[in-house]
Design goal:
It is a single chain. By secondary structure, this protein is mainly α. It contains eight helices and no strands. The longest helix has 43 residues. The relative contact order is 0.06.
Length: 186
């Protein structure tokens, strides 16, 4: 027990291997241990990073993600190179960004855009609970997962067809090359 308290809530390498060994044989065939660990890490990153970014912005400034992104985008529009005009433009950029920031007139809009727009985009369309549809998730999540599966099947079929066409063209090319003296020299 003392070892696990030193490491916090993160499982040790031995604990991760034990969890992986507890998976069914079908699951083990789908992924190697390394792939499984990488997926687990990516899932945790997808869940935690938007929250960490939100907390950082809340603790150390007056921005939410929408106002921060607005200011950053507007800062890239400076074109004059004249310090007085750039300073004026900085003021306007901050005024616009601050209106959707923490204490701005449009703070609710900025907060919604941050939570439902930017955070969902970072999480691949999922909310903070891992659902695509929020309250309607019992209806929407199966639809989304079926659509993703169909898209992957379609992409896999197109890849297979493309590979067969490429192989056929390569075979025809070597045949034609052989007729005119091309091909392997021995």
């Amino acid at each position: 027990m003392a070892d696990s308290s030193k490491q916090g809530s993160h499982p040790s390498e031995d604990q991760r291997k034990a969890i992986y060994e507890g998976l069914s044989e079908d699951q083990k065939k789908k992924q190697t241990y390394t792939e499984w660990v990488k997926d687990a890490y990516n899932n945790q990153y997808e869940n935690w990073m938007p929250w960490i970014e939100d907390k950082y912005l809340a603790w150390f400034g007056t921005d939410n993600k929408a106002s921060y992104a607005t200011k950053d985008t507007l800062d890239k529009t400076k074109v004059t190179g004249i310090s007085q005009v750039d300073k004026l433009q900085d003021g306007v950029n901050n005024l616009v960004g601050d209106q959707i920031g923490k204490d701005g007139l449009l703070a609710p809009v900025g907060n919604m855009a941050s939570k439902e727009g930017i955070n969902r985009a970072e999480r691949g369309g999922k909310d903070e609970h891992g659902s695509y549809g929020g309250p309607a998730s019992s209806y929407t999540d199966p639809v989304v997962k079926n659509a993703q599966g169909a898209g992957q099947g379609l992409a896999g079929g197109a890849q297979s067809a493309g590979g067969a066409v490429t192989d056929g063209v390569k075979g025809a090319g070597s045949y034609v090359g052989g007729l005119f003296g091309g091909g392997k020299k021995e």
